[in-house]
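Quick look at the format.
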Amino acid sequence: MRKWLLAAAGILALGISGASAQGYPTRNITLVIPFAAGGPTDTVGRLVAESMSRTLGQTVVVENVAGAGGTRAPAQVAKATPDGYTILLHHIGMATTATLYRKLAYNALTDFETIGLVTDAPMSVIARPDFPAKDFKEVIAYVKKNKDKTNYANAGVGAASHLCGMLLMSAIGEQMNTIPYKGTGPAMTDVLGGQVDLMCDQTTNTTSHIQGGKVKAYGVTTKTRVKNLPDLPTLDEAGLKGFDLAVWHGIYAPKGTPKDVVAKLTAALQTALKDPKVIERFAALGTEPVSQSDATPAAHTAKLKSEIDKWRPLIQKAGVFAD
């Protein structure tokens, strides 16, 4: 009798689970973003969330869970109920923190279901408005001559601006005084105000400042120029041969989220990336959606694995770690 009851309970549970997945979603979905509101990743997330809401028929609500170099949010989502109602949008930091942090409350490869990639955002090297260098070659010359007093701002350990700075300093063979901030906003404020010299950040955050003449811009980090900044050379063109860095974003769900729920989220993401409004807004920010084939769990998982492998030796060589 007891075995029969247990079997019946199991069948009933499966039926409930299947029905729940079939009817998904029946309420609001929370999209957790690991950085403060107004930053570049937040901007990308809100644009995608708005479009996905229309496809899913339920509101995708953005929740900003900043702190700990972008690791608080993934830790929270990894522990969430795997029902598709709590998901995560993160950038390249999902791969780099695997090496940057000696201890993490989650494993990027085993604690999540990948939904799909979203965008590859170029980065741009900018400086305070009165920085003396006219082009990137002069930036390098200035840094080599004034390395002890050249200040480089970043948004904190693990931020894209931190990673770009590490690559830049490695490429030019000189160190700068690195000043970590608690987010992109305050870092950008001090660049605009002339309190720090240089910064490298996503075009989703720098384009309007560049176009408005509020900062000096010296190059983009990808091998091709940005369409709405056509006069800004690539760093490869400016002398750093082979320099190529883009900040990719992807969406994740907790491990164990039903496959059909993952499929619905992936389909909604793919629809969002074809949305003319999203494409237009992305272009204005200096980026564009990934291809439909990259907005899939398989492509996303492959990207995450390859990026962890790519950044591990670079971070270990730099000797930059966080507890």
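Next, a different chain entirely:
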Amino acid sequence: MTTQITPISSEKFKSVPQTSWMHRLPAFIILLVCGIAVIILGSNYFDILPTNKNLTYNLIVSAACLVATLWLRGNARLNRFWRIAFTFFVASAAYPITLLFSSWSYIVLGWFHVTTGVSQGIAIAKVYEAVLVVVPILVLTKLSGADLGSIYLKRGNLKLGLSIGALVGLNFAASAFLFFATRYTSMENLSAAIVWGLAFSLANGFMEELWLRGIFLKRFEPVLGIGGSVLVSSIIFALWHGGATYLTPIAIPFMVVNTFTLGLACGYLIMKTDSIWGAVLIHAASDLFLFLAILANA
């Protein structure tokens, strides 16, 4: 049965019973711990913990989330929570899939005769990674009986979302050119960095917004409220970026603060506009700034 998703509005917010933070705190802690177990401990992006880049751990977590989904769905008293468990299963599935198929990226790069040592190769590898993450999310969402609107893949208030996203994008782009354009040795290198930086940033922005926010926010909102949903997803998002291997250790705390505030802004915009697209543009703008900065200092 397809889940019917209605647009978020101020009238809907007023009709939702208000629950104190003390009553929501246990659910907040449980969802945060589950998010850390799935997203942080299972991460393939860094190798800090024994569970990172560990196929066995990822398969066990995915299996546990699937078992919890089936149990909750069959439990008359707790049935309303099964989609939350299923969402964790969807999020966890990305890790074993990317582990199993990540080596194929070299084949894809070979088709274009490039490596990840150049901007084109970095962008192509990211697009390939995004496909590995996004396609299973879309397929599993549809198999669950939910429509894509349940993960914010719809128009919503598209005008507001794209307007804010475009303004932030222009600001980040102007700042990147202001600080880093003169560090490129030629206009050809700068042009390549811009073109492939846009490809990288849009692919990564869409993948991370869908994976780390889009699939969670609507599921968390009934038990945590709007603020709690955005906050827990932002904490997980920030901790996830705390393991960034392309930064020096002294920069990690600033990355955590940067991604935490970015998560709050993008999460709020998604729920405000009932659509993912404005947040994707903001996220992509942030990534483009970082892309140009790193290549400028390479």
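The radius of gyration is 20 Å.

See the schema section for token definitions.
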